[in-house]
UniProtKB/TrEMBL annotation:
BP term (GO), one: endomembrane system organization
Any single Pfam family the record assigns to this protein: Sec7-like_HUS
Chain segments carrying region Disordered: 223-248, 1268-1290
The protein's name in its UniProt record: SEC7 domain-containing protein
One of the record's GO molecular function terms: guanyl-nucleotide exchange factor activity
CDD domains: Sec7 (cd00171)
GO cellular component terms given for this protein: endoplasmic reticulum-Golgi intermediate compartment; Golgi apparatus
Coiled-coil regions listed: none
Keyword Kinase (UniProt): no
PROSITE patterns (UniProt xref): SEC7
UniProt cross-references to Gene3D superfamilies, sorted A to Z: 1.10.220.20, Arf Nucleotide-binding Site Opener,domain 2 (1.10.1000.11)
Biased composition (Basic residues): 223-232
Protein keywords: Golgi apparatus, Protein transport, Transport
Amino acid sequence: MAVNGIYVVLGEANALIALLKKARRYWHSVQAPTVLEDTDPLLRSLADLKDVLNNVSALADVAPQAFLSPFLEIVRSQNTNGPITEAALAAVARFLNYGLIDAHSIKSAQAVESIAQAVTHTKFIGGANAGSDECVLFKILQVLRSLLLSPVGSLLSNEAVCDMMQSCFRICFEQNLSEMLRKAAESTLSDMTQLIFARLPDFEEDIRHPYIRKLVMSAKRDKRRRRRRRKSKIDVKQNDSEEEVDAEVTEINEAKQELDQVVDELSRPRTSSQLMVDLHATGMGYAVVLNTDEAIDITTKCDEGLQSCEGSKEAKEGEVLESSEADHNVPLISALRRERHHSPQHSPSDVSTGGGVLQMPYGLPCARELLRFLITLTNPLDRHNTEQMIVLGLNLLIVVLEASADHLSNYSLFLPLIKDELCRSLLQLLETEKLPILASTSRASFLLFESCRIHLKFQLEAYFNKLRAIVVSEQTSVSYEKKEIALDSIVQLWRIPGLVTELYLNYDCDLYCSNIFEDLTKLLVENAFPLHGLQSTSLLSLEALLVVIDNIEQNCVYRNAGSLPPSGVDCKQPVLQRPILSGMESAQRQTNPGQTGVDIELLTKLSSLRKFNRHAAISSQLSMSKILEQKKRKRIIAEGTEVFNQSPKKGIEFLREKGLLGADPESMVDWLRENPRLDKKMIADYICSRKHAAVLEAFVKSFSFEETRLDQALRMFLETFRLPGEAAEISMVMQHFSDHWYRVNNEPFNHPDAAFTLSYAIIMLNTDQHNPQVRRNQPPMTVDCFKRNLSGTNGKADFDSQMLEDIYAAIKTDEIVMPAEQTGIVKENYMWKVLLRRGESGEGNFTHAPIGWNDHDLFAIAWGPAIAAFSYVYDKSQNDIILQKALNGYRKCALIAAHYGMSDVFDNLIIHLCKFSTLMPKSEGVGEETLELQRQRSAGSELSLQDTPEAIAIRFGENQKAHMAARAFFELVHNHGDILREGWKNVIECLIQLFRARLLPPELTEVEDFVDPKGWVSLIRVHHKQLPISRSEAGLLSWFGLGGGSNESQGVKRPTAEQENSIKTAEQVIHDCRPGQLVGDSKYLTNSSLSELLSAISQASHAIVQHADNGMQNPVRIEPLSPVDEDALVFHLETIVNITQENKDRISMVWPVLRRHIDWLLSKRFGKNPLLVERAVVGLLRVINRNLFRDTEVTTKEMLLSLTLILTLPPQAISILSKQIAYGLHSLIQNNAANIHNKDDWNILFSLLEASGAAVLPEDIFNETRAGMPERNAHSDGELMLAKPKPELE
């Protein structure tokens, strides 16, 4: 630092001396002075410090304890007022912020311990204004934060850190303090918690540490102590003469009463003065003196018994993990302090004396105690936990998980707490109706399952099932906001890269887990289709479906680019930055950015991989065939389970027929024990039948009862099935059970029947103690009566008295309740035990799947619901952002479908987009109109509902959603036309609609022509059909004398300026869609897609003709097609011709389709449509002219032979088309004469020239030429001059 540390300490000392003298003068003005200045110990110590500092050159020459002691004495002094204490605390904070205490000095550990001890036991004289006293409390928080966050804070002991944290907690929970102070305490706790758990990777799990050794070694001792405590309670009621038991029970009751009093004091409203007096009594960690006359006498002293009384809470019912049972609901520091009494050889030195062994720096014990305390705060079943306490606990748990979620599972000290207490508290908090608690629970759960889900398989399953139950709940108590939070939690979890794949692998493909992915997909689809319009839950559901599609699409992109990055690549996450201690530290970080610990390169790399699973996948390759086979087995087992729960015999037969169960009893027992969905009563009906004695014997032998007391073994046994009601069946089951227990425990009784007798007695005792009907008729059995009843039944001897007492106490305090009869908290505890037990078995293995491992299967499940949801949202919404999300979903689905070659999916996408583009003809629509068309119809827009070209263009130009859909539609066809099959039909229909609306670009409407001087003609013809004008409007204009024009008199109306703008907008949109690219890109289509395209065009042409024929009044007489239909057929023909021209390399595949189509168009059906016939002839000549140079002899011969189709036309048609034919033949011969090598081919060409009047041939040559040629209906003028009879005209 720029200033010598000595000057900083001297300055603070002088400031305090001035304040102390000011306070002394005020004191003497009230009463006569009785002491001299030199006798004031606080002033004397500061003066001595100044003398020492004036004689040294550097502060390092002074021990930290030496220059800190005067300030700490003021902090601990009970005769100083608030401003003085605040100034002393500010001085200590400044020393810490400036780094005046050397963290590398061996004496610093004692110094920081002194600071912690003094600040957590601050005393001062309270003032009349409570606000000034709160300033002292605020400064205490600042000092505690600076102490822990400073470099020397790492030297603090576990006890000191826990004391500091507990002091902050007490300020948070004191409701009579101002909200600002309590918020400051929360902020301090957050920073301190973040620091402790951010240092977690630096802590070592040393089993030699007394705290850790105690946790590992004392679990069974604690369980025995609780059993003795329960037994003592029972014996007290039976025998009041046992003084030792009386003393223990009295101590427990007193502790409970004291705890209740403390809670009552905390919750009772008090005045400001009462608050200042009672602060320490409520556990604030400091004392305030009000009466200055007798300060020393009434100074409140530290209540060391508070923690011990708080530690007397009962452990919650049904806990399983032993390591967490020992210290449940114990205050933050209690367990560590108990350790000092149990392990004196490791106890830290007393700071006040300055001697002894140095403290061990804080580490895992402190972190575990803090985590356990936070979990205790979030327990909703604890009546002492208020909403504020639960929210605070959750917020600090969020800090813990944000700072160290990836490291918590690496320590055996934390896993039991996380698996049991933390997960259960989070699941129970989901039932709350308080939204702040629910939101914090959701956030904490997300962080927990994102990082530790490999250890929490069944907890994650329970979490998803809870969220799903909230969303589908129809209870009035479940608010819409709660459903929204639950659904958003699902969406956030689904966003975790790789989680969706893991859900499918670990749950949907697990034999006895829920189908999480399939069930949630159904849930999301149901919420995406609301009954009363779009809601936020609908959009959240859409987001979740988009998450699945987006993840699969990203994987497909990487596959197309080359390969997928391996799972878990660079899974090391950037370390969360520790909170800044002071402005000096902030300046150091800005001056030396390299010391901040931020790896820019790592952050950049993680940003590019943010959508990939950061957890490493399993090393062995997953077999998709095995997984699918297991999925199939799961469906069969689920069906067999349903049958078994109705009829066990039929269920077993069903599974054996499917080959999933063998005939041996062992395989049957494995299935009965493993399947959690079997009805316990049906299991009993099956195994207790005398026909299945072998199954019963194998069922009993499947239990491991070694070194297990009889009542405990019986409790385990009866959890798996419901004991039958018949006495004979009960006797048979108990006989098998007792025999097995007797053998595996090395025959502990004098006779084998003794085990059976005692087992039966335990069941009777359970009924006697807990059956309400029995208790009404007779008093409950006592322990002496229980012993008496079993007297002489152990092979004519008595059982061990202590064992019977333990059994009696266990049954009396904890009823044996079979699963089928459990309700309420008992059932919840049992189900949680089962969940933890399954998690510890092989079933609890959670697999991180490789990236994109089963994307195809996931997409096969999700694409249908997803596209349906996109379509619904797109139709109902008017929000551009939502519409873009839906269209992005379409695009991503299209890319995935193209990647996996799923043509049916892509066809479905094109159909939906065609519908939303409004370019589908009404007669070929999808059954129901879109919402936009319904709006237009309800508005009564007569203009927009016509089928004239202008009306179609106007309707399209006015619809913004149609623009977006059209752009997406053409974009998908351009990018993924290879996999389009049935969807080509919709593409052609949209092109026809655009052709009718005159919106297509010139490359599709201007075609090559042999005769026109320009070399091309336009396919667009004007048929003089104008928009109608309403009769009322025409009459009104005439009445005013404004309607005298000829067009207006005939009821003709031109588009308005607004409609003209709509037409221009439509033209621009279609121009951006580039429909002409479809023909040019056809050369890149696969053979199958190209074949489907040509087939779709041909079918569309036939459909037009069939529709026209169905509407004819006289089916016998052929009528010409309407101009609109004729234009459509011409457009189809020219499209096929253009596609053929673009696919010269595949002419052998395309040519047959074109020839059949032209042959059909040159038939008699179209004789009255000269334009259509003309374009067919021109198209045929164009294709032959461009492709005759091909070396394929077969194709050349087929093309030239197809020219004979022209000769089949009537003479009138030949006459009309003679100019086109002649020009076309001239171009053909001019360009391809060298490619015609066959005499027959030349004969065909000359015959066409004759027919078109270009040459005259004698009769003999004519007859010779026509040999081997089909019969002609057209002849040249020279032939007609001969006496040949004229053919009949049709």
